[in-house]
Design brief:
about 450 residues, three-stranded antiparallel sheet, two-stranded antiparallel sheet, 13 strands
Length: about 450
């Protein structure tokens, strides 16, 4: 017993020594400037970490193997930690879009376009882009960024119109089959031509998982009853992207038809979801025929999609104060704590947590309407909050406590991950947009 205790003591001492070394190493990294803008030297260590980390996330799995679906090209998984009990080998839909945001350059063209081609291949095979490339995740999808991904690649890499036409055709089929389907396995378009998140099992929590916000107070654990702001803004973006593509191909009549469809969606969303008094969009409970009461960053998706008026944009900018904190934008405003303890399900997509995809959407929304000062301020807060954690612990996180950046984020249904794919991708993109170009 004494020998065991001695061994344990030695092990603890070794661990303490290693921890001190790690602490000294991270303290050698840059200190976060609070009184000035970040520069290239401030973020160099973090960006090198990100560049080195991608090789840990890259996979090539070309044949179906038990539950893991084969994909033709290499892809990225959200995170990897050899010491974690929770691991990934599958490719995720909306994660992939945000992971590649810092990769729209010549060196990464093959990887980025290959990931998009994997998504297109999944739809061609299964008539759905699943939540992830697993057989057991085929019953739902994830927030649809396909047309945006297509046009990002088309413009960044000067791809051919023939390539664009083929890719947009797949997106049209996804739009029609999945997102505007009216019966199983895609019973999503349910009220006034607007759509909901869904899962083939018709369970509210699984439909909420399709939203990517699993879990959130937005839907009060009844996601099937809600028309989500973000989803319908994304579908408006599909419709305007289809119109844009049609004009590129010289199909003026088709473009005009898509314009009419997009305008109808915008009008309905404004009628049902826009709260002029509060200056925000809210998810609409079509079963109870009333708006939800949770203010969230989903309200900025219509601005990102380009469907708001200048007056609405100004109101949304005024509403930033509901969400803006020291480390960036909180996912929801600070509602009473009781609203986050819904049943026994943790709601990690809520205050005080902030997530990289939502920061990116808000920043791009602000840029689109000319609010560059506000966009830069939020980007700076997010970058500094990420850096603070990186400098202390040497890793990036999947989400952050933006209210108190020195504290861990609120935990969710799944184990918290380090690494982390979409955080890394958005961090690198914001460095390119707001530091490299300054």
């Amino acid at each position: 017993m004494d020998k065991i205790n001695t061994a344990k003591t030695k092990a603890r001492n070794v661990a303490k020594t290693q921890a001190k070394k790690v602490s000294k190493q991270t303290k050698k990294l840059l200190r976060i400037p609070t009184d000035r803008a970040l520069n290239g030297a401030d973020v160099s260590e973090a960006r090198q970490y990100i560049a080195d980390y991608w090789q840990k996330l890259e996979r090539l799995h070309q044949k179906d193997d038990e539950s893991l679906l084969g994909l033709p090209n290499p892809y990225l998984v959200p995170s990897y930690d050899e010491n974690a009990s929770f691991d990934y080998d599958e490719m995720y839909y909306w994660d992939s879009y945000f992971m590649v945001q810092g990769m729209f350059d010549e060196d990464h063209q093959v990887l980025v376009v290959g990931i998009l081609e994997n998504l297109l291949d999944l739809f061609r095979r299964f008539k759905v882009i699943p939540n992830a490339s697993r057989t057991y995740l085929m019953g739902r999808s994830q927030p649809p960024f396909l047309t945006t991904f297509i046009f990002d690649c088309y413009h960044a890499f000067n791809l051919s119109d023939e390539w664009l036409k083929d890719a947009i055709e797949v997106a049209k089929q996804e739009y029609e089959t999945v997102w505007t389907g009216v019966k199983k396995p895609n019973d999503r378009k349910v009220y006034q031509d607007l759509s909901r998140y869904y899962d083939i099992n018709m369970l509210h929590d699984l439909a909420e998982a399709e939203s990517g916000w699993d879990m959130t107070p937005r839907f009060n654990r009844k996601a099937l009853n809600y028309l989500p702001v973000d989803l319908n803004a994304l579908l408006y973006k599909y419709e305007t992207d289809f119109a844009k593509a049609a004009r590129i191909f010289g199909e003026k009549r088709e473009a005009a038809q898509w314009d009419v469809i997009a305008e109808a969606r915008k009008r309905t969303m404004n009628n049902l979801m826009w709260d002029n008094l509060r200056g925000l969009y809210y998810d609409y409970n079509f079963v109870r025929q009333k708006r939800g009461n949770v203010s969230s960053l989903a309200a900025f998706f219509p601005m990102w999609a380009g469907m708001v008026t200048d007056e609405q944009a100004a109101a949304l900018v005024k509403s930033l104060r509901k969400f803006e904190n020291k480390g960036g934008m909180a996912t929801t405003d600070a509602l009473p704590i009781g609203q986050y303890v819904l049943g026994s399900m943790p709601t990690q997509w809520a205050y005080p947590n902030g997530w990289a995809p939502l920061q990116y959407v808000v920043i791009k929304a602000l840029e689109r309407y000319g609010y560059h000062k506000e966009a830069k301020r939020i980007a700076s807060k997010w970058l500094k909050g990420n850096l603070q954690w990186f400098n202390n612990y040497g890793v990036f996180l999947e989400k952050y406590n933006v209210v108190s950046p020195d504290k861990p984020p609120v935990k969710g249904v799944y184990p918290s991950q380090t690494g982390f794919g979409w955080t890394n991708g958005v961090f690198e993109r914001l460095c390119r947009d707001y530091i490299d170009k300054s």
